[in-house]
Amino acid sequence: MASSFTGPNSSRLFFLWGYLKSKVYSTRPTDLHALKEHIREEIAKLLEETLQAVMRSFLTRVHLCIEDGGGHLKDIVYKE
Questions:
Q1: What is the dihedral of CA 32, 33, 34, 40, to 10 degrees?
Q2: For the whole model, what pTM was predicted?
Q3: How confident is the model at residue 5 (pLDDT cuts 50, 70, 90)?
């Protein structure tokens, strides 16, 4: 999974959210307890490198947002 987090412009946090959502709901949990259990199981399967990449990306975006005065980060989000 770590290879899915390559590229300076990838939105790692949103990818991680979508990835976890697809894995958790693929099992079609039938109640809140099952949903919580599936979430815990899928999070436990994540590689440490994946989580580190997500955190680095998030912190970079936060710092860039602060430097830009809270504006949109078009050079990261929309850069080609």
A1: 110
A2: 0.56
A3: very low
